[in-house]
Design brief:
By secondary structure, the chain is mainly β. It has a single domain, classed as Barwin-like endoglucanases (Beta Barrel). It has an eight-stranded mixed β-sheet with strand order 2-6-3-5-4-7-1-8. The longest helix is centred in the first third of the chain and has 7 residues. It starts with a strand and ends in a 10-residue tail after the last strand.
C-alpha cells in the first residue's frame, strides 16, 4: 500500500507579492527551495495562517537570497502581501519507507523569509 506523507515544509514565510496577472503558481526564493528539497514545477500545498485558505499549485524558482514568496494568478486572490503561509510538499511511499522517512522542515525568519 502507498501512502502520502509530508516530504518538505517551509514553515511560516511571509507573502512578499501577489501577482494576479501571472499565469499561475508560487514563486519561492531558491535558497528556501534548496533547504526544503523542493524543486521547480513540484506540486505544493499552500496554507494561509491569516485567513485559513488552502490551495495547491506548482513552484517557480525565485531569485536566490531574495526572500521572495509570490502567489501568482488566481492564487493571488487567496492571500494578501504580508500574510504568513506554510508551504508543504508531499510524496508517495510505501508504509515501510514512510516509517523511517524524515521530511525536510525549514523554519525561516518570518520577517525576512531568510534562513536562520
Amino acid at each position: 500500500m502507498w501512502i502520502e506523507v509530508v516530504k518538505s515544509k517551509i514553515h511560516k514565510v511571509s507573502v512578499t507579492e501577489a501577482n494576479l496577472q501571472y499565469v499561475g503558481s508560487i514563486t519561492i526564493d531558491e535558497d528556501l527551495m534548496d533547504a526544503a528539497n523542493i524543486i521547480e514545477n513540484e506540486k505544493v500545498q499552500i496554507v494561509n495562517i491569516n485567513n485559513g485558505e488552502r490551495l495547491e499549485t506548482y513552484v517557480i524558482k525565485g531569485e536566490r537570497d531574495s526572500g521572495a514568496v509570490c502567489l501568482n494568478g488566481p492564487a493571488a486572490r487567496k492571500v494578501a502581501v504580508g500574510d504568513v503561509v506554510i508551504i508543504i510538499a508531499y510524496a508517495m511511499m510505501d508504509n515501510k519507507e514512510a516509517g523511517s522517512f524524515k521530511p525536510n522542515l525549514v523554519f525561516p525568519d518570518t520577517a525576512t523569509n531568510k534562513l536562520v
